[in-house]
Amino acid sequence: MPVLLNDKRNTPRWMIFLIDLTLAAASVGFAYLLRFSFTVPPEWRETIPNVLLVVLIIRAVSFILARTYSGIIRYTGTQDLIRIFLVNLSGSVAFSIINLILSKGLGQPHLIPFNVVIIDFLLLTLAMASYRMLVKMAFIELNYPTRRKSDVVIFGAGETGLMAKRAIEGERGNKYKVSAFIDDNPSKHRKKLDNVIILPFQKLGDLLKEQQIEQVVIAVPGISPVRRSEIVEVCLASDVKVMSVPPVARWIDGELSYRQLQKVKIEDLLGRDEIVINTDKIRSEIRDNTIMVTGAAGSIGSELVRQIAGFKPATIILLDQAETPLYEIENELNGTFPGTKTIYLLADITDRSRMQRIFRKYKPRIIYHAAAYKHVPMMEGNPREAVRTNVLGTKIMADLAHETGVEKFVMISTDKAVNPTSVMGASKRMAEIYTQTLNGQSSTRFITTRFGNVLGSNGSVIQLFRRQIENGGPVTITHPQVTRYFMTIPEASRLVLEAASMGGGGEIFLFDMGESVKIIDLAKKMIRLSGKNPGTDIQIVYTGLRPGEKLFEELLTSGENTIHTGNPHILAAKVRDYNWAEVTDAISELLQNMQESDTYEVVRCLKKIIPEYVSQNSLFEQLDQPDLQ
What ranges do the domains of the chain cover? Predict the structure, then answer.
């Protein structure tokens, strides 16, 4: 036994093999005793030596072939037990076949009574499994003596919760014990699961205060973001760490281990219940058609491609000028959608001749235009590039869509285009105005979708905070009052597809972004989720608003209001109309200034076209003075 339980060495394989064979021999003998009520008739007793020989040969061969002796006993898991069951079953089937051959083929009596075969199978399987589990438990207890274990609460008293409990308590070293389950099902309250009490959610706060709970594990598959957020809020109020069980698909060999438990991320809390969309209508537009996505390697563009691929288009054209991200999405799609025809084009949307050749060659039916520069401070320092990509690039794509008879052109805009305070926002508003006005001159339907920040996107404040927390701080925030709207990338992409399917042309669709979030609250919650305390473990530093940055984001310009659509998460903005001739003259002047004038003239021209554009925290504030306009 010391060899079996030693922390430094593994039990020799030959020893496990001999123990298994000994159990096989004992199991047969005991099976005979049970079958004949401990009085074996002489005619069967005489055959036992031959039976033992056959049994040991067959069992030895099956153990060797299945390598049942090769596992490390103290780490026995579900897969090991399943292997034992199958190996013993195959051996018992072999005994049954021998019986049939002897009785029907050779006219001899059975070698082993069939009842003995069944009893032997059950006994041996139980013995081999029990022996391994007993060694595993003894190893843990001897090498990690009982000590004060930290209390854990599991939210979810279902099958996943039970597996989480066994994974936690079966962990090597076993520093934890589950003291309670929490569940929303009233029929389970005050009952016990695996000898642990089940309590309602309302008791969680008191439980965390009264006992020294170290962590709460969320073990409910598909739990709603709202409920998850409520659980986390209660836990953070008591400085209790929150973990969650990953989806079953991520379990290793179908088995959950403690190391697989994940920290709850801020994205899990800011998300909302899944938005239901009209998939039939979207499918009817996309299926068997050629779809182009610009900016296809970006955060929104790549998610649009993933979702579009699920609707089985004839071809998806992925267009982007970023080489490495385009290569990465190509590798991903080749694995996840191998049957979908995809074309990867490394190209710049401001290169009209290149775009013209692409339109003529591939003839897209629907275009999702996600290509844009979106970083506010960066574009504040580079107005020409903002206008070149966001205005000129959009104009080129929209004009070519009109000229080649594209059915729909869906522009992905931003809430920063509303009452813009930055060059980036103003350039996107200019693009909105142009496509909206072009809609009245074209058979192509031009549709704009407008939404706020997306969680996990490139350059997201969440990514910045996460890096800063991992590096020990400080976490930098521009202003204590700054707020933002957030939406997950998948739900934003779903709403883009839904809005595009319902659009008749000329609309600007707004998405329900939920409640705005104070960035300071976001930062503090992320710090607490990491297991640290804001202000002590991780400092928060205010750096001041960046060039062009707003305190509050908006989804409507002054004078606009909304119209309800068939989807409660999508609204249509009632926007003012623009004169086509005036818009084309203004955009020509803007693009000429982009080519020939200094940056101040470019920005001045934007302000002339978009009177609501008032710079904030920017060098261009001086252009808002009446005598300089």
Answer: 2-143, 150-264, 279-609
Is pLDDT above 50 for 5? no
Q: Which pLDDT band, with edges at 50, 70 and 90, does 434 fall under?
A: very high
Residues 6 or more apart whose CB falls under 8 angstroms from that of 250 comprise 260
| Burial 278-288, CB ≥16 within 10 A → b, else e | eeeebbebbee
Give 355-391 pLDDT, tens digit per residue: 999 999 999 999 999 999 988 899 999 999 999 999 9
Tell me if 150-264 shares its fold with 279-609.
yes
pLDDT tens, position by position, 145-157: 555 577 888 898 8
Residue type, 437: T
Q: What angle do CA 360, 366, 368 make, to 5 degrees?
A: 105
For helices 423-439 and 394-404, the axis angle rounded to 10 degrees is 10
pTM: 0.68
The CATH class given to the 279-609 domain equals alpha beta
Buried b (16+ CB within 10 A) or exposed e, 100-137: eeeeeeeeeebbbbeebbebbbebbbebbbebbeebbe
Sorted by sequence, the CB contacts under 8 Å of residue 490 that are 6+ apart come out as 303, 307
**Which tokens in the block code for residue 194?**
């695996």
DSSP H helical ranges for 46-113: 48-66, 78-100
Cα distance between residue 189 and residue 183, in whole Å: 7
Reported CATH class of domain 150-264: alpha beta
Greatest mean pLDDT among 94-103, 155-164, 182-191, 354-363 lies in 354-363
